[in-house]
Structure formats: structure tokens, C-alpha cells
Amino acid sequence: MRVFHKSWQSYAGMVLVAASTYLAGCASTAPPGQVSQLGDAELLRGAPFAIPPERQLGEVDLLGVSDEMREFIDWRLSGGGNNRQAVLELIYAIQSGDLKLNYDNGGTYTAAETFARGEGNCLSFTNLFIALAREAGINARYQEVEVPATWLYGDEVYLYNLHVNARVKLPTGAQMVDFDPRVRNLQQYRTRALRDEEALARYHSNRGVELLQEERFEESFLHLQRAISLRDYTAHFWNNLGTLYSRAGHANYAEAAYLKAVDLGEDSAALSNLSRLYQSQGRDELARYYERRVELFREKNPYYLFHLAEEAYAAADYEQAEDLLRSAIRKQRHEHHFHRLLGLTYVQLGEADKARDRFRRAETLAENPEQRALYQRKLQAIAGNTGADISRHRTTRLKNSRL
What we know:
Largest sheet: 5 strands, antiparallel
Number of strands: 7
Shape: flat
Number of helices: 17
Oligomer: single chain
């Protein structure tokens, strides 16, 4: 039995999940006449791996609660209090308190496995939080957060992280719960509720990617097969399957899976992977076609442009950030954080009136009082003691333009 050391500390909390990891790239459609010779059923049968029936996956209980977890809930919440206090106690226990969980980006586990192992990645932590919260009678669910893409490199593949966290419903309103300290200002991004079945599909996709990196190809296939069986219209699941086939040396199966991903939507990873596959085969015309589609996708994707603008702003290349943000806004006018960053850019460029206009626009588009309050503070700062600073920024810009 585990011994818990109780500490009643309030924690203004966060939970974390960079849920589905998927491999490399950018997106579009196949050239006219390009048709795969392998159908969906053949891709999901996994004939190249020759997996015997007895090795099929069993059912996974993503949010199952063990007796020890119930004991922990009874002990941790024995002091009473309302649901809000219970949420704070669970967040503290998971993030830095009694459970002392270790973060492991390469480990996706169920709620019970995370509790028993004392480690996991962001999806694992979220699984544990939601399971504990529901057992305590708290309304908790998964949600996807549309943050800009993050990329990691490892073992000859790029991992593209999507972000998932939890949301709890309290009498005072809904609260986002996120454990990832690397992701900032989450309130500014759009969210989408995920059903438990979708979260389970992402668990299997993650496990497939993790096992692929260990070159445990048969086990990887079984998890990706299960992910697709749960959500067969999810493009990046098919892309992951294509990457598995490619790494295992089955190029025709990889091509078919990538084409399926592209057929389902603008999947950037599948397009990039197709380009690489054709390049490795000396099929230069097709490789160039998909490389160009990647470039076009990036040029027309406002969120990719916003990501580039963030990089330009961080590098103090404010003119480039302005150009990128104006292009992004032309394609998507109603994202308040586009206007926010453009407002900040105009502050750096010494354009007080333009900065003020952008913060007002961002305030109009803001989705909650916290965001609106942030933009009000920006406007007050411009109206207050930053006017001289902005004038100095502009003078410096004019001097530099004459050099």
C-alpha cells in the first residue's frame, strides 16, 4: 500500500496533454489519376507484419479507477470542501504534491497505469486527473486546444504535438486544467470538446508512435489499427500508419496510407512524407508536386503564418512580423490573438495609433472577460506612460530606414 503525505495547499492549477503526436510535414490533394492500389481494408489488415490472431490487443480502460486510486481520493479529499477546492487539491497532488509524478514525454499511459507508475506524459496526466475528478463526483471532460504547432525531433522522425487538456464544470463556471508549463496563455485559443472515445483513439495513436520509435513494429501496428478503428476519418492516424509502413520497409503500403491521409483533408504531415518517399524512390516529379503543395499550404494557412510571425517577433524582426500578421488576418479576421500580436508589433515599431486599433479589435473579438481585461490594460498602457516610448521606437525605426 502506498503511504501518502498530506499537504493542504491551494494550487492555481494546470494539467497537461500534448496528446496525439504525429510525424513530420504539411498538406493537399493527390495529382489527377494518382490512385493507390491498396484499399483501406488491406492497409488495416497489416499483412506485411503477419501478426497471429492471439496477439491482438485487448480492450483498454483509459479512465479505469483502481482500489488504491479510490483510497487516495477518500484520503486526499477527506477535509471536505466544495468541488472547486477538490479540483485544486487534485491538481496539486498530480503536479507537485503527494503523487510526485515524473514527466516522461515518451510515455502514454492509462489513468491507472499513470497512478501506479508515478510517471507519464501530458495525456497520461490528463487521463489521471479526469479519472480522479469523475470518481470524486466532478464533471470533467477532455478538450483539444488549438495552439500553434510544436515540433520535436528524435530518432530520425519529427514529432508534431497536438494539445489536449481537461475542462471541469463548476458552479462558478468552467475551468481549464492544464499541466504543461511550456504552453502559455491558453485562454486565447479556441477549444473543442473531445469525447472519451476520441481520447482513447489518441491514446492508441500515441502508443503506436512510441512503439514505432522503439522499432516494435507489430505492436505499433496493433495500436494504430485500433486508433483508426475508433476514428477512421482522422487524417494523422493514417499518416502515422504510413510512417510505420515506411520505417518497416513497405513503401507501397506507406504510400497508400499517406494518400488516404491526404484524401481525408489538408494533412500537412502526410504531404511532406509523400514528398520524402517519392524523393527517396527517384520519382522526382511527384516529389516536387507534393513539396509545392506543402509550400502552398503554408502560404495559405493563417495559423502557420501566425507561428512564423511569433518567431519573427521573438527575433525582433518587427517588419517581418507585421507582414506575416497582416497576411494571416486577411485569411482569418476573427482570431483575436492575431490582432493582439500585431498590436504588440506596432508598439515596437512606434505606431501608437495602429497598436491602439489592433488592441481594440482584439478586445471586440475576445471570448471571455479575462481576455478583454488584458486588452483593456494594453490600451491603458498606450494611453498612459508608453507614449514617449512609442515615439522613441518610431524615431529609431526612421533612422534605421535611412542607413
